[in-house]
Amino acid sequence: MTAHAAFVIHSRPYRETSQLVEVFTREQGRQSLIAKGSRRPRSMLKGLLQPFVPLDVTFAGKGELKTLHRAEATAPAIHLTGTALYSGLYLNELIFYLLETHTPFDEVFDAYRQTLTSLANGGGIEPCLRHFEFYMLNILGYGVDFTVDAHSGLAIDPDAWYQYQPESGFIQLAKPEPGAYPGEHLYALAELELTRTDVLVSAKRFSRQALAPYLGGRVLRSRALFIKGKRGSRSE
Length: 236
Hints:
Blueprint: E1 4-14, E2 18-25, E3 29-35, E4 55-60, E5 65-73, H1 82-98, H2 106-120, H3 125-139, E6 161-165, E7 169-172, E8 181-182, H4 183-190, H5 197-215, H6 221-235
Parallel strand pairs: 3-5
Antiparallel strand pairs: 1-2, 1-4, 2-3, 4-5, 6-7, 6-8
Function: Involved in DNA repair and RecF pathway recombination.
Protein name: DNA repair protein RecO
Family: Belongs to the RecO family.
């Protein structure tokens, strides 16, 4: 059996001693696996099938749900805490909901691993997430041209204001409106120049709007956990 580089993106108990595990592999994309006996006290898999642990896994089966035969850590777990942890869980949800199963996305796998590493090393949370979101939108064919008016075909005017139309692009407005994008911000987004706070705000708003149709209206658990964590810290 061929070993595949992988990360666990989700798991849940299955029957008395097993788990259903969603893994994101470099060579075979997302896979749903049964990890038989992994919840037994003496299982060699116990403690391995956690998010952010770089793994080599082998599995087999003919259906949608395959059987995990082996998992081995290839490096220490990527250590995420606080906001970085919630951000890593958010990345896992994007992988789970946006990528179809059994389709290789080796470049996405590499970008995912690099983003986790950047988060663990103290990289700016917002720039890290925006870079990954923009990358995902482009790799899946959902990206837009930030430099061209989707209605007129003319170049974006840096001094004008624009409205984002999902799955289309940016349309010039006659005057500023709530939620509008300054043209100068769109040129910054095109180059992923995310050093300015106001541009980061525009980047986050665009990501939320652009990803929403493909997330199917789901309330992401990572966001709910982050909000709950912030409320808890305020009450302490």
